[in-house]
């Protein structure tokens, strides 16, 4: 297994001072910036686009930016986010007419491609694309909002996804998104995740470093 990565979701950050929030959470020990893009079409909420990603780069953020596209259609946003400085780009397979083509577009743009699975989306979408994936993102809440509760069935799905990754022989990260907290992160790691998105668990607390430290201590106990 690769080293665990903690990816705070800036959806729960204070948007009136986003640059500072991102600087602070990275200084507090976060590895990657998780960037939730919602279009009020694929999901019933509206967030931020490529302009904000570009602004973070201009502000001086050098950490990887993990763009999670909850948009439909997908392909034009891939190009725009690659130009805006995204590092990882993932999308929901149901939102793309041509999943292989969208993945290739991410690769050709120089970014790391991922596929995202809603709680009820079957893992079969992986069958013919494992060789193209840098990461698999399992949603442990329905997409659209921060601050929801972790859906417990996601643990079983993580185990299945981990087994598929192992069978494939490819080096693919397994990312979890939704309701990740200090008190469940260890069980989530034990089910097979190695990258953890956490929005409200981090940004709703005053001391980001304390939360990230607690998460890492829990992860150190994972078997
Ligand atoms: C939900 C987003 C998540 C969300 C996670 O659609 O993809 O990244 O911000 O927030 P928490 O950690 O609060 O569940
Ligand atoms: Zn997300």
TrEMBL record:
This enzyme's EC code(s): 5.1.3.1
Cofactor: record remark: Binds 1 divalent metal cation per subunit.
Residues involved in substrate binding: 9, 68, 144-147, 177-179, 199-200
Pfam name, any one: Ribul_P_3_epim
Single Gene Ontology MF annotation: metal ion binding
Annotated keywords: Carbohydrate metabolism, Cobalt, Isomerase, Manganese, Metal-binding, Zinc
Keyword Zinc carried by entry: yes
Pathway membership: Carbohydrate degradation
Protein name: Ribulose-phosphate 3-epimerase
UniProt record similarity statement: Belongs to the ribulose-phosphate 3-epimerase family.
Native organism: Paraglaciecola arctica BSs20135
Record-listed a divalent metal cation binding positions: 34, 36, 68, 177
Keyword Nucleotide-binding applies: no
Cellular component terms (Gene Ontology): cytoplasm
Cofactor: Zn(2+); Fe(2+); a divalent metal cation; Co(2+)
Annotated active site: 36 (proton acceptor), 177 (proton donor)
Task of the protein: Catalyzes the reversible epimerization of D-ribulose 5-phosphate to D-xylulose 5-phosphate.
Reactions performed catalytically: D-ribulose 5-phosphate = D-xylulose 5-phosphate
PANTHER family, sorted: RIBULOSE-5-PHOSPHATE-3-EPIMERASE
CDD domains named in the record: RPE
GO terms under biological process: pentose catabolic process; pentose-phosphate shunt
